[in-house]
Design goal:
Strand order of the largest sheet: 1-2-3
Helix content: 40-55%
Shape: globular
Radius of gyration: 15 Å
Order of helices and strands: HHEEEHHHH
Structural class: alpha+beta
Largest sheet: 3 strands, antiparallel
Number of strands: 3
Strand content: 15-25%
């Protein structure tokens, strides 16, 4: 909530990405209070497509549940455990994808993965996800930045029908 008010006050643009403290605030906001992560005890109904992904290098283990309504993402739920990078990147991505078509969601996901891989990407499309643009400078954090995103992508494209 503090971050939301700060954005309004500052009439925030992409310049926030140059401020390490604000980057840290965005990451911590979604790590400490993730909106889309639900308890492992919560049963997810069978109308959700799911995919589990874990990191071979650390504790990150995230299952993404995607509910579609025709060609649009109606809801995303996440379960599992992850470090600050894994949890926050996945939570931010989930918030950006709800309401988008499968095609739009895949474009956003692929754009993010291009950024992580240091390929050409559209900064404006990524919004808050741009805070992870420097994650590739720490090789051990690349998997963290991708583990939940790939879970969402695979759940999204895992048509059970």
């Amino acid at each position: 909530m503090l971050l939301k008010n700060l954005r309004k006050e500052m009439n925030w643009t992409m310049s926030f990405n140059e401020d390490k403290d604000i980057r840290r605030m965005i990451i911590l906001e979604h790590y400490e209070n993730p909106k889309y992560f639900v308890s492992e005890k919560q049963k997810i109904d069978s109308s959700y497509q799911s995919f589990n992904n874990n990191s071979p290098t650390c504790i990150d283990n995230i299952t993404a549940y995607v509910k579609l309504n025709k060609d649009k993402i109606a809801d995303i739920k996440l379960q599992g455990i992850g470090c600050a990078i894994a949890t926050s990147s996945t939570d931010i991505m989930a918030s950006m994808l709800i309401g988008k078509s499968i095609k739009q969601a895949n474009q956003t996901i692929n754009n993010y993965l291009d950024m992580i891989a240091q390929k050409k990407f559209d900064e404006k499309q990524l919004q808050d996800l741009y805070v992870f643009s420097n994650v590739n400078k720490q090789a051990n954090r690349i998997n963290c930045a991708k583990v939940g995103i790939l879970a969402i992508k695979n759940a999204l494209n895992n048509d059970k029908k």
